[in-house]
Amino acid sequence: MQTADLIWMNGEFVAWEDAKVHVLTHALHYGTGVFEGERCYDTERGPAIFRHDEHLERLERSAKLYYMDMPFSREQLREATHELIARNGFRSCYIRPLVYRGHGPMGLNPLENPVEAIIACWEWGAYLGEEGKKNGIRARVSSWRRISDDSLQPLSKASGQYLNSVLAKIEAQKSGYEEAILLDDNGHVCEGTGENIYVIRDGVIATPCVTNSILWGINRMSIIQIANDLGYEVVERDVARAELPLADEVFLSGTAAELTPMREVDDMPIGDGKPGPITRAIQEVFEDALHGRSERYAHWLDVVPIPAQT
Ligand SMILES: Cc1ncc(COP(=O)(O)O)c(C=O)c1O
């Protein structure tokens, strides 16, 4: 179980074991929350949060799509996150801000329920494993389709929507795979349960676009930038299911999984069954950017001020 000393709750720092909500919290019943997943890396300049501003901006956009007014400004959340990391004494950690409808009237119209906010952080290794990042993972195409904007808000990182990822993840793991790839409601490739996806053939990188029900990944933005800077062509377009096993290389990106290559899909090897050269080239630059070893992308890191010891 991951822990930390403190959690930030509605403007206060509280002990991990005291960070509690009422059982009639609206979000607990109806999934009415929005959240972020961010990572703080131990860099030479100090602990630093990767693309912090972009994550806080997406949190606001996610909230807007569910008619939630943010109870704290972006700057307040940014400062609270800094202080939380410093007070927990972390050099590197995963960060989870959550904005949710609290205890109030029960029923499906949540507009009278308070909007509350917490930020938690804990130490968390690579989501699909260090071995997966190095040698690639095995995935299957899920029998579950990714939620579509006919019924929900794929561009919102909303709590209730993750039941879709939960079902796909359970199915994949029960059948012996590390990850599930979901198709969109038109049968095009969409994404993993918590990652965007990239398919490489003949030197061109294709990735599903915003009209394929993806979550607009912050790392996706960074990967596209890095790939372009390395001189690769990146095309945002519909990707057919069969392009996965027929690709030279496939990889995934997300805050939790970072850049993880895929070596197999539906029991078919991708390329020669090992991470390929373009994946490796992008992964190397991306890892340098995350860990503060890249001058070019240094502006993507928000350094956490650590008060001097007295
Ligand atoms: C469903 C889903 N898709 C894609 C991503 C990748 O997004 P990001 O790169 O912002 O972490 C995530 C993770 O947040 C996710 O949960």
What can you see in these coordinates?
The chain is of the alpha+beta class and 310 residues long. The protein has eight helices and 17 strands. Strands 8, 9, 10, 11, 12, 13, 14, 15 and 16 form a nine-stranded mixed sheet that branches. Strands 1, 2, 3, 4, 5, 6, 7 and 17 form an eight-stranded antiparallel sheet that branches. It is globular and about 50 Å long. The mean pLDDT is 97. The site of pyridoxal-5'-phosphate has 14 residues, from helix 6 and strand 14.
SSE order and pairing:
Elements: E1 6-9, E2 12-15, H1 26-30, E3 33-35, E4 38-43, E5 46-50, H2 52-65, H3 74-88, E6 93-101, E7 115-122, H4 130-135, E8 137-145, H5 162-174, E9 179-183, E10 189-192, E11 196-201, E12 204-207, H6 218-229, E13 233-236, H7 243-246, E14 249-254, E15 258-265, E16 268-269, H8 277-290, E17 301-303
Parallel strand pairs: 8-9, 8-15, 12-13
Antiparallel strand pairs: 1-2, 1-7, 3-6, 4-5, 4-6, 5-17, 6-7, 9-10, 11-12, 11-14, 14-15, 15-16
Number of helices: 8
Q: C-alpha Rg, in Å? A: 20 Å
Please give the share of residues in helix: 25-40%
Largest sheet: 9 strands, mixed
* Percent of residues in β-strands: 25-35%
Distance between the termini: 32 Å
Mean pLDDT over all positions = 97
Structural class label: alpha+beta
Task: Provide a brief overview of the structure.
By secondary structure, the protein is α+β, with helices and mostly antiparallel strands.
Q: What distinguishing features does this structure have?
A:
9-stranded mixed β-sheet, binds pyridoxal-5'-phosphate, 8-stranded antiparallel β-sheet, alpha+beta, 310 residues
